[in-house]
Design goal:
Blueprint: E1 26-27, E2 33-34, H1 42-53, H2 61-74, H3 89-92, H4 94-97, H5 107-119, H6 126-139, E3 150-151, H7 172-181, H8 186-192, E4 200-201, E5 211-212, H9 223-227, E6 233-234, E7 246-247, H10 256-263, H11 268-273, H12 278-293, E8 303-304
Helix pairs in contact: 2-6, 8-12
């Protein structure tokens, strides 16, 4: 598209040089208040993001893709191999980075956000915008934490190197090594995978876009961690697809790397710990997301503008970890050697097909 080739210099950072948090709140022009005056410009931007990018505040396809983009931009960082981390290079150097194999399908949300930036005269850096959109979007999903947001990333200087983004068919060894190189523990890797609770696959099998990774893609809950632990059958359609694995239900997709991480001795117990501990899930995901969102930057050089992120809503009263209809605890593939899998009951009724996430 016309805006796809925008270079980093096209984005300016509307902030004060070396701005530091104030000891008292300041009044913004729209009547809201912030801990630092540079955050005031973000309130109206968040309103526009909610209205125009997220269809009035929905937890839908654009949210899923914006959350994916936060990771694909940020993980392009290595102390040895280079990369600017969460700097917006995936937008500023889109022609280069969207061509990476691991970024298949990411061009749609890159184009959408680039167009949004141009149409709405957004004057913050692309790195700031990507992480802002991700934090705002996930806040729309019931059960999600309110992720702290830090502002002030400079414009990116270069494209990320290729080969930095883990892929669905990578081994656990390769995934953990790549994350370790970027500074993440194995527990933090599993916490970040909570994003798959509100995610869907468009390109693993392009004939069935919008295929969710669990049965509740509109909720930030632990069902993803339950359902990946269920026995599965070959996913219908194209069983030889690269990166494709088994699914416990029709209409649902499980990728190989998720299945492997759920069953590896280094990560299985952490995976299982999220099944019946939603508070831990929210806290661990929030902490890991903040760490990812500032990769390549010194957080002391950024301004805490967390107050601009919308308040979140809790899970519905009837939500909670459960087995899928027509399954039992015998269908759980126990992998944690330390503690038994939490005892769950199945939803009533026969086995059903999980509907796809509709396009926005």
């Amino acid at each position: 598209m016309a805006y796809k080739g925008l270079v980093a210099a096209a984005f300016t950072l509307a902030t004060l040089a070396n701005a530091k948090p104030l000891n008292r709140r300041v009044a913004c022009a729209d009547g809201r208040s912030a801990s630092n005056e540079v955050c005031c410009q973000l309130f109206p931007l968040v309103d526009i993001i909610q209205e125009k990018l997220f269809d009035g505040g929905e937890c839908g396809e654009e949210v899923h893709e914006s959350l994916r983009l936060t990771f694909h931009d940020a993980i392009g960082f290595s102390p040895t191999a280079g990369g600017g981390g969460a700097d917006g290079s995936i937008i500023a150097f889109a022609d280069t980075e969207t061509a990476f194999h691991a970024n298949g399908g990411i061009d749609e949300i890159v184009d959408a956000q680039t167009q949004f930036i141009a149409d709405n005269n957004v004057t913050i850096s692309p790195g700031d915008f990507i992480q802002l959109a991700g934090a705002v979007g996930v806040a729309n999903c019931p059960g999600a934490p309110r992720i702290p947001y830090f502002f002030g990333r400079p414009a990116p200087k270069a494209a990320s190197p290729d080969g930095m983004i883990p892929e669905p068919f990578d081994s656990v060894d390769k995934i953990l090594a790549r994350f370790s190189d970027a500074g993440f523990s194995s527990a933090e890797v599993i916490a970040l995978l909570a994003s798959h609770s509100v995610a869907a696959a468009d390109t693993v099998d392009p004939t069935i876009p919008g295929t969710p990774f669990d049965s509740t893609p509109g909720l930030f809950d632990s069902q993803f961690f339950v359902e990946v632990q269920l026995k599965g059958t070959a996913f219908p359609g194209t069983p030889d697809n690269e990166g494709e694995s088994k699914s416990p239900a029709a209409g649902e997709m499980r990728i190989q790397s998720d299945e492997a991480l759920a069953r590896d001795s280094r990560t299985a117990c952490e995976w299982q710990s999220f099944v019946d501990n939603h508070d831990k899930l929210m806290s661990a995901f929030s902490d890991a997301m903040v760490k990812m969102s500032v990769l390549g930057h010194d957080i002391k050089d950024l301004v805490d503008c967390s107050e601009v992120i919308p308040e979140t809503t809790p899970l519905p009263a009837d939500a909670g970890p459960h087995l899928l209809p027509a399954t039992t605890m015998d269908d759980i593939e126990q992998a944690c050697a330390d503690t038994p899998f939490p005892t769950l009951t199945a939803l009533p009724g026969p086995a059903t097909s999980i509907p796809p996430v509709p396009p926005s």
